[in-house]
Amino acid sequence: MFTGIVAAIGRIETIESLGEGAGLRLTIDAGRLDLSDVGIGDSIAIQGACMTAVTIEGNRFKVEVSRESLDKTAGLSMPGEVNLEKALRLSDRLGGHLVSGHVDGLGEVVVFEPVGESWRLDIRVPASIAKYLAYKGSVTVNGTSLTVNSVADQASRDCIISINLIPHTIEMTTLKHLAKGTQVNLEIDLIARYVERMLHDGVQPPKG
Known about the structure:
The protein has 208 residues and is mainly beta. The protein has helices spanning 67-72, 127-130, 167-172, 190-199, and strands spanning 8-17, 24-29, 43-46, 49-57, 60-65, 80-86, 105-115, 118-125, 138-141, 144-147, 150-153, 159-165, 183-188. It has four helices and 13 strands. A hairpin with a 2-residue loop joins strand 9 (138-141) and strand 10.
């Protein structure tokens, strides 16, 4: 589990193929992320996707990304900056919201522009997860916990959400590199999953 509070900006330095049609092995410079308490097998969120550290050498670590994960995420197949967060400890503050590190879908940036001292970010959300987004609800974008300012449903059953990014978020995350047309990793709020399940037709509560 994670909080969606980005701890550091790292960088994918090298990429190795795991074989034809297979995944990739990434070497990542952790930047300011302290790896002293991270062991082999521990989870680290990279651009919002939970990955397992397979080697740790100084301030660098490697992960192996399956072809399935590469097909369902953005930003893990080429060198560049990435948002990093270590797994949540039970004693940690929950500064963002509960995040699983499982990408639910890819969004598309339709607006990214300065508004006063902040930035406006509008994202087109695919129909498969649009129903889980709500006004003032939480969403994870490239591993960053954010608050939805508005939701505009579209005739195609997808939706466009609008988010306000404060200067601190721009400075401390890779969201500064977004542009119109960029794909982003989205994870819906965990609570929404359970609410949808409980309200789904045909699912009856257990009889006591």
